[in-house]
Specification:
Belongs to the class I-like SAM-binding methyltransferase superfamily. CmoM family. Keywords: Methyltransferase, S-adenosyl-L-methionine, Transferase, tRNA processing. About 35% of the residues lie in helices and about 15% in strands. By secondary structure, the chain is an alpha/beta fold. The chain has a seven-stranded mixed β-sheet with strand order 3-2-1-4-5-7-6, sandwiched between helices. α2 packs parallel to α10 and α6 packs across α9. The structure holds S-adenosylmethionine.
């Protein structure tokens, strides 16, 4: 009998080979994906200091974010380990100023060392076996004064949505993460805000901004039925996405992390 081939990489990460169709349909094909992009369109200019800097997009997936930045004059390097995702990203971006690099985050210190003034890493850390080491690697690629736009899947929101759906046993056992096997889109390493705070501090990164992405939408009993309702929902999401306590239960947490120009001074004797 042949052993089933694991979809996990040697590092234990879930590269998206074999998942591109499902990801495109379920994350970007519907209202949730539209909302995420509409929110990012508003939030990225509010949360980042954008001046056309070169951008490294880590785990760039289907390339929506790369396209957004390239369209605003940034020279983009899209790094992505999955050949299938890269192939899909290339087509819509062929006219844009985007360089493609087939590489996992772990290879970037050699393949795209920078240092970079601007890095994006959206919805990637939760697919890695060791997101803490990954954040350290990202910090090492940032130039002094550089900004990291980091988006992570929020473990606390995953708990709430499981309870809302009636998955009480799973929530009580705190068995929230997926295993990365088959074609499931439940991340293997959902993160908490506390982890992002602690790991940022470990790597000398300062949290400049934080927002919740989809703070209401995933808990609705009735999805919006008209364009007017979808617009009201977007207005509500935008109004409360950076307001305590709402941001804390966003499906994703979006951060601007900065590497300070000068490392903090040691307290003098
Ligand atoms: C949920 S998708 C997010 C794609 C894109 N950043 C976005 O926001 O739409 C996660 C991506 O991370 C990639 N990925 C998985 N392991 C990775 C690794 N070790 N280094 C870089 N990217 C990785 C996957 O192949 C997939 O394209």
């Amino acid at each position: 009998m042949t052993e089933p081939v694991s979809p996990l990489s040697p590092a234990g990460d879930r590269h998206f080979d074999g998942l591109a169709d499902k990801f495109a349909a379920s994350l970007y094909g519907g209202a949730r994906g539209e909302l995420r992009l509409a929110l990012l369109d508003r939030l990225l200019p509010e949360m980042l200091d954008l001046q056309g800097q070169p951008l490294l997009d880590v785990g760039g997936g289907l390339g929506q974010l790369a396209g957004w930045f390239a369209g605003r004059g940034h020279a983009v390097t899209l790094a992505e380990p999955s050949a299938e995702m890269l192939a899909r990203a290339r087509e819509p971006l062929q006219e844009q100023n985007v360089r493609f690099l087939q590489a996992p985050l772990q290879d970037l210190p050699e393949q795209a060392p920078g240092p970079w003034p601007l890095i994006a890493c959206h919805a990637v850390l939760e697919w890695l076996a060791d997101p803490r080491v990954a954040l350290a690697l990202l910090a090492g690629l940032l130039a002094p004064g550089g900004q990291l736009s980091l988006m992570v899947f929020n473990r606390d929101a995953l708990r709430l949505s499981n309870v809302v759906k009636g998955n009480l046993e799973k929530a009580l056992a705190d068995r929230l993460e997926g295993k990365g096997l088959r074609k499931r889109l439940t991340p293997i390493s959902p993160l908490t805000h506390g982890q992002v705070e602690a790991w940022s501090a470990e790597n000398g990164l300062v949290i400049r901004e934080v927002a919740g992405i989809r703070v209401f939408s995933d808990y609705l009993r009735r999805p919006p039925e008209s364009q007017a309702e979808r617009e009201r929902l977007l207005a509500l999401e935008h109004r409360y996405c950076r307001v305590d306590p709402h941001w804390r239960l966003g499906r994703y947490l979006l951060y601007t992390l900065e590497r300070p120009t000068h490392p903090p001074q040691e307290a003098s004797e």
